[in-house]
């Protein structure tokens, strides 16, 4: 970084946004909150039945504000540091500074912590006091909480959620320990500097909560609590490093996306606790009436997953295992629709049953089951991890979704093709349509993958899978050479969001460059400019594919109206409506960099690459790309592309890689 240049990974402001939803989130795989908020959420802890299922609010001791006493109004600053995974609030007074630093610990995932540090700046000897303004009350609208005995100086509450997701289903239990918080902290007259540490441990069992709190106390005693968090977070960031030379706003957006997305995934050394999926607004949001109640959609599988797969395949596997764990609920959904196999819910919580509050989406937006299978296919092609499918439930899921698609199709005698009728495509402005191009293409891809996987696992391939994949209708206009969104779509009809353009990427549905261009030209002008943030990313990827980087840039630029200042929190829609901390939009944006600028495409036999940059970008470096057990570092400039194998898995041994150019020249890629 050049001298005097702003650090693109540190966001500092002297005032907070007027809308508290735009404050930064602090999360790890199990706990999440927003800066200065009086509630937190624990992964997988939902309360409420069916469509009322929402993340249970856990009262948070972390939601306090530090203030200087009296009428004095000192200078203040607020900083989100994406390199350390911390948020801080600093008061700058004549004679002293006071800093409040907050984080979700990245290796002790049941622990959140904050510290207050007062530092004397002059030679005075009078006491210095700061006030801690807390909204914390140990009560919840979603949990039946009871006070327990103190433990190692911490207060203790525990209780169950009030209402199970399904009748007779489990009601998760929450156990919380926290360091008591005084109203005032004072630096003595003889002291130059002092730091006070406050811990909050939350877990599903008393034993785990106490173990995490004790581990935190031991690190406090050793003076290494914050250091241990920063070390774990920095290791993750280093292993998923994405850097580009380009406009500052683009680099800031990139680091913001990496911070919020990587905060949402399980750390490498976390215990084997189940992962509970990624919702559009993340773990920090999702109370009743907010951010889709914390439910998991296709947003996880289509928009977030590909990035995580490329950079952290073990975290991607945990995301897939969430779907495996909810397979029984998906089977019940299919049954209730009169179908076979498994139909994943449009909105999922803990059980896999449909929890969307509006019936139309759960009944008609069925492409989500195909989206789940595309994620499984991408994972399989990138890792060749057969254990997930042979031993850990992956094959049962793939087979169940294939059976669902077969039972959902009907044969058209007139067209001599299979139809899927009465659906809502990704474009939610239309419902009850027949033969959604995206839905049918993702069903076709599901069936092809299921058949290929069965062969790899040496299992019989049902004839109907291949027959239906061959004969399913994917609407195509031979005259205009483009894909109508569904049967009866008229060119010029408004579209809510990316739909047909997804056929090109991520589905890689076979088509010529002419058809790809026509699809982009047809839908770009009629897509709602106020639609959800991830849309423009997919138009950008399409134009990059066609080597029109400036058209791609004009689409990518639209995303910036969804990025709020000063902490780069995304909103779903540019008018501020919809989900906040919109990980879906960030996932789409990151795919432009990881798959658009590089041209990476995951196929059965290889990882293809074909870079293209807009004019303002001169270099892109990505370290930690995972492919077939090897780690790759890739640097792309306008003149050249460098690839280095930095790490190779020994157990099981990773296959030898080689780079193959279009000319046929081959370059073996050994480690180093």
Automatic annotation (TrEMBL):
> What are the BP-aspect GO terms?
carbohydrate metabolic process
Q: Which branch of life, at top level?
A: Eukaryota
Residue limits of the Glycoside hydrolase family 65 central catalytic domain?
A: 284-490
Is Thylakoid there in the keyword field?
no
Q: Which UniProt keywords apply?
A: Glycosidase, Hydrolase
Q: Where does the Glycoside hydrolase family 65 C-terminal domain start and stop, copy by copy?
A: 601-646
A molecular-function term among this protein's GO annotations: protein-glucosylgalactosylhydroxylysine glucosidase activity
Q: Which is a Pfam family this sequence falls into?
A: Glyco_hydro_65m
- Enzyme Commission number(s): 3.2.1.107
One GO CC term on file: cytosol
Catalysed reaction(s) here are: (5R)-5-O-[alpha-D-glucosyl-(1->2)-beta-D-galactosyl]-5-hydroxy-L-lysyl-[collagen] + H2O = (5R)-5-O-(beta-D-galactosyl)-5-hydroxy-L-lysyl-[collagen] + D-glucose
Please describe what this protein does.
Catalyzes the hydrolysis of glucose from the disaccharide unit linked to hydroxylysine residues of collagen and collagen-like proteins.
What does the similarity note say? Answer: Belongs to the glycosyl hydrolase 65 family.
Q: What is this protein called?
A: Protein-glucosylgalactosylhydroxylysine glucosidase
Q: State the organism named in the record.
A: Vireo altiloquus
């Amino acid at each position: 970084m050049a001298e005097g240049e702003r650090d693109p990974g540190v966001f500092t402001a002297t005032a907070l946004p007027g809308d508290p939803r735009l404050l930064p989130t602090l999360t790890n795989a199990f706990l999440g909150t927003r800066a200065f908020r009086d509630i937190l959420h624990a992964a997988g802890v939902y309360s409420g039945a069916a469509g009322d299922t929402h993340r249970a609010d856990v009262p948070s001791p972390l939601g306090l504000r530090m203030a200087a006493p009296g009428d004095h109004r000192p200078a203040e600053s607020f900083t989100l540091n994406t390199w350390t995974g911390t948020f801080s609030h600093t008061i700058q007074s004549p004679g002293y500074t006071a800093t409040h630093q907050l984080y979700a610990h990245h290796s002790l995932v049941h622990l959140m912590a904050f510290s207050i540090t007062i530092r004397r700046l002059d030679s005075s000897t009078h006491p210095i006091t700061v006030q801690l303004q807390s909204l914390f009350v140990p009560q919840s609208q979603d949990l039946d909480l009871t006070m327990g005995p103190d433990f190692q100086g911490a207060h203790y509450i525990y209780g169950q959620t009030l209402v199970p997701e399904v009748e007779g289903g489990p009601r998760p239990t929450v156990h919380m320990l926290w360091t008591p918080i005084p109203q005032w902290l004072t630096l003595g007259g003889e002291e130059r500097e002092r730091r006070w540490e406050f811990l909050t441990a939350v877990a599903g069992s008393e034993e785990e909560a106490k173990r995490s709190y004790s581990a935190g106390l031991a690190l406090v005693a050793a003076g290494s609590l914050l250091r241990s968090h920063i070390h774990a977070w920095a290791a993750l960031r280093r292993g998923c490093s994405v850097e580009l030379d380009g406009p500052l706003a683009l680099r800031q957006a990139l680091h913001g996306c990496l911070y919020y997305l990587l905060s949402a995934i399980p750390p490498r050394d976390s215990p084997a606790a189940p992962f509970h999926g990624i919702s559009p607004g993340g773990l920090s949001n999702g109370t009743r009436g907010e951010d889709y109640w914390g439910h998991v959609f296709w947003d996880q599988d289509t928009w977030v997953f590909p990035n995580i797969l490329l950079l952290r395949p073990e975290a991607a596997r945990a995301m897939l295992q969430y779907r495996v764990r909810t397979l029984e609920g998906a089977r019940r959904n299919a049954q209730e629709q009169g179908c076979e196999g498994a139909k994943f819910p449009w909105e999922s919580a803990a059980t896999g049953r449909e929890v969307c509050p509006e019936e139309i989406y759960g009944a008609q937006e069925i492409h989500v089951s195909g989206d789940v299978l595309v994620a499984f296919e991408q994972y399989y092609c990138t890792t060749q991890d057969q254990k997930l499918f042979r031993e850990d439930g992956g094959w049962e899921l793939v087979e169940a979704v294939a059976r669902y698609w077969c039972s959902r199709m009907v044969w058209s005698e007139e067209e001599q093709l299979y139809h899927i009728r009465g659906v809502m495509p990704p474009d939610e402005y239309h419902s009850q349509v027949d033969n959604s191009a995206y839905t049918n293409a993702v069903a076709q891809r599901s069936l092809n993958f299921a058949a290929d996987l069965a062969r790899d696992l040496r299992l019989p391939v049902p004839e109907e899978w291949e027959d239906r994949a061959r004969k399913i209708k994917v609407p195509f206009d031979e005259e205009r050479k483009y894909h109508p969104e569904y049967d009866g779509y008229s060119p010029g009809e408004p579209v809510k969001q990316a739909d047909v353009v997804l056929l090109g990427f991520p589905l890689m549905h076979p088509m010529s460059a002419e058809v790809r261009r026509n699809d982009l030209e047809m839908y770009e002008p009629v897509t709602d400019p106020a639609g959800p943030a991830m849309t423009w990313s997919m138009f950008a990827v399409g134009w990059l594919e066609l080597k029109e980087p400036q058209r791609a840039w004009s689409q990518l630029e639209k995303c910036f109206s969804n990025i709020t200042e000063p902490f780069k929190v995304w909103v779903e829609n540019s008018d501020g409506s919809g989900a906040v901390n919109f990980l879906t939009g960030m996932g789409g944006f990151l795919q432009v960099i990881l798959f658009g600028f590089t041209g990476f495409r995951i196929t059965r036999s290889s990882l293809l690459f074909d870079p293209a940059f807009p004019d303002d970008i001169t270099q892109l470096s990505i370290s930690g790309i995972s492919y077939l057990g090897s780690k790759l570092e890739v640097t792309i400039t306008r003149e050249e592309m460098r690839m280095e194998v930095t790490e190779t898995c020994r157990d099981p041994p990773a296959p030898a890689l080689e780079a193959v150019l279009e000319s046929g020249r081959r370059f073996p890629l050994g480690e180093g």
